[in-house]
Write a structure and sequence with these properties.
- The chain has one domain: 3-Layer(aba) Sandwich (Rossmann fold), CATH 3.40.50.
- The chain contains 7 helices and 8 strands.
- Strands 1-2-4-3-5-6-7-8 form an 8-stranded mixed beta sheet, sandwiched between helices.
- Helix 3 packs across helix 4.
Length: 251
């Protein structure tokens, strides 16, 4: 089986963002174009985030196209992390990524969303915007998604090789949000959340599950952390994602 990996670039607020579109073997979709799954990484992530790499392998193998990209100021995409990171800007990035991918006419107009941590927040934020554009998502997978930022227990201020040290004012000005009212728009959702997540408390996962419309499924990872670092949890993630997309292959 041959997976096509196509490097892409698109603009979002005059910033050039880098991405990769993964297409399944044409033999799988000889009579129809594949549905499109769009991924949004977490605060410090990029196109190379671990879960996105997993999806780039398993989704095309199961007949789905997958688009992963780095938000502005992340990875090799243009922009400055401190100036270009907010839930509003990341939502805009995701919508622009979808518009560009669909313009290539290599996939179906049927779309699914994937987001981890702040990427999950981005999916929730983008959902209603996409509905307004006539691009209602058919479902989403959310991992440790943040719904209400005041629930964060440990604010990551210290810098690392992916971003500079951040002042508390950065979070107050750019990442103070509550998306609870938007979770009621969600449907056909698969949720993963570790019950020992010290960054995004598990209550966020319960909120999404409570408010989202059926069908929906919540998987609580026992002793699971924010990064899903336990190998058993990672294997369960792969199994459940393949199963979930298998159930959605008839769309």
């Amino acid at each position: 089986m041959t997976i096509q990996n196509i490097e892409i670039q698109f603009t979002s607020s005059n910033k050039v963002l880098n991405g990769m579109l993964h297409l399944p073997d044409r033999a799988i979709y000889s009579t129809a174009l594949p549905p499109l799954v769009i991924g949004s990484h977490g605060l410090e992530g990029s196109i190379d985030s671990s879960k996105q790499q997993v999806l780039s392998r398993i989704l095309p193998a199961n007949g789905f196209a997958f688009l992963r990209f780095s938000h502005r100021g992340c990875g090799k995409s243009e922009g400055k992390f401190v100036e270009d990171t907010s839930i509003e800007k990341r939502t805009e990035d995701m919508i622009n990524a979808i518009d560009y991918a669909l313009s290539l006419k290599m996939t179906d107009q049927k779309i699914f969303l994937f987001g981890s941590s702040l990427g999950g927040s981005t999916c929730i934020s983008a959902w209603s915007r996409l509905v307004e554009k006539g691009l209602t998502p058919l479902g989403a997978i959310l991992c440790a998604a943040l719904v209400n930022s005041i629930t964060i227990q440990r604010i990551p201020l210290n810098g690392n090789d992916r971003r500079p040290t951040l002042p508390l004012s950065f979070f107050e000005q750019n990442l103070l949000f509550d998306l609870t009212d938007r979770t009621v728009d969600l449907r056909n959702i698969l949720i993963f959340h570790g019950d020992q997540d010290k960054t995004v408390p598990v209550e966020n996962g319960y909120t999404i599950y409570k408010n989202a419309k059926e069908p929906k499924k919540l998987i609580i990872l026992k002793d699971g952390d924010h990064q899903m670092s336990n190998r058993d949890d990672q294997m369960l993630f792969e199994v459940e994602v393949i199963k979930w997309f298998g159930c959605n292959s008839s769309y």
